[in-house]
Amino acid sequence: MDAAEKPPENIVLIGFMGCGKSTVGREIGARLGYRLVDMDREIEHRAGRGIPAIFEHDGAEVFRDMESRLLESFVADGLQRHIVSTGGGVVGRAANRALLRRLGYVVWIDAPFETILERTSRNRNRPLLRTGDPEARIRELMSEREPLYDEVAHLRIDGDGLSSAEIATGIIECARYFFADRS
Known about the structure:
Mean pLDDT: 89
CATH topology: Rossmann fold
């Protein structure tokens, strides 16, 4: 494999909201010395306002366009040795799924419905869950997204019952093999 085909040494974390991407990303970043880029925080920074405000004033499509442009910039800029924590819906666009794979080693952190419900119920900053029946909405979104996470992920890790440190250890070990095989 020539250098042009070798994927950048980034670890890209995907999964449903509340699965622990940001927490695990911080743990991995600290251990490897990689910078964590939380896509949601980066979009908020660039937009100068929070995600709920973007959804409320501009709509979900504008937010998804921002996600796509951010991924495109990561790939175009040759992002290297970063942990990228994505938003839960980033996999909704086929172009994004292709960009995620070009960006590095893609890890799907999976968590059971009950865990997601418990974690997201504590957070009022989730525009997609501002509905009369957040439970039904979570089930619907998980059902839609799971095949897309599966399509793009190099690794699926079941985080149920594991600490963020344990999840991080598993991801780091698997990523080492992934990047070594592509050297």
